[in-house]
Amino acid sequence: MRTIKAPSVSVIPRALGYGNVQPGNVWEAVAEEDTNPPAAEAAPAH
After folding, report:
1. What is the mean pLDDT of residues 23-32?
2. Distance between CA atoms of 23 and 9, rounded to whole angstroms?
3. To 5 degrees, how large is the angle CA 12–CA 14–CA 15?
């Protein structure tokens, strides 16, 4: 999993607007599960 560091800031995000809007982009995705991972990457058993 990739992560990025973000600094802590003391602002409150706020947006005001009126009227109808439409999305600029629509993303659709289907999650896939690897049912047979390589032995080196397998999660340890609990």
Report:
1. 88
2. 28
3. 170
Query: Tell me, what DSSP letter sits at residue 35?
Result: S
Six-digit token string for 14: 């706020």
Tokens 């049912």 locate to 35
Given a cut of 80, whether residue 39 has pLDDT beyond it is no
Half-sphere exposure of 32 (CA within 13 A, CB side): 3
In this predicted structure, the answer to whether residue 12 has a pLDDT above a threshold of 60 is yes
46 vs 43: CA distance, rounded Å: 9
Percent of the chain with pLDDT over 90: 11
Q: How far apart are CA 6 and CA 44, in angstroms?
A: 30
